[in-house]
Amino acid sequence: MESLTMEQRTPHGRILGAAQASVILVLLAVALLFLRGRVSGGEEGFLVSGTIVLSLGVGFGLSAALSYFLSKSFGLLNDTASHRS
């Protein structure tokens, strides 16, 4: 039953996850758009796929940035490094 419950993530984890997804999707989109000119007959498919994936990557990046600034303004991001020492 415990495996069915969702674990609560910290704001740091959520922001980092969105930033990681953003980087991966943007790199995938760049690769698809690069292949557009290299594969004959697949220009349109690579262009459409690359554009969609790039849009998702940019969206995740904007989401991570917005989450960071909102979490900072709400006081959810504390300087945990100073508390450890």
Topology, element by element:
Layout: H1 11-36, H2 43-73, H3 80-84
Quick take:
The protein has helices at 11-36, 43-73, 80-84. The chain has 85 residues and is mostly helical.
Description:
It is a single chain. This protein has 85 residues and is mostly helical. It has a domain at 18-35 and 42-70. It contains three helices and no strands. Helix 1 (11-36) packs antiparallel against helix 2. The N and C termini lie far apart (37 Å). Mean pLDDT is 86; it is low at 81-85.
**Unreliably modeled segments:** 81-85
Extended strand count:
0
Cα(first) to Cα(last) distance is 37 Å
- State the secondary-structure class: mainly alpha
* Mean pLDDT across residues: 86
How much beta, percentage-wise? under 5%
Radius of gyration from CA coordinates: 18 Å
Distinctive features:
85 residues; mainly alpha; 3 helices; 0% strand
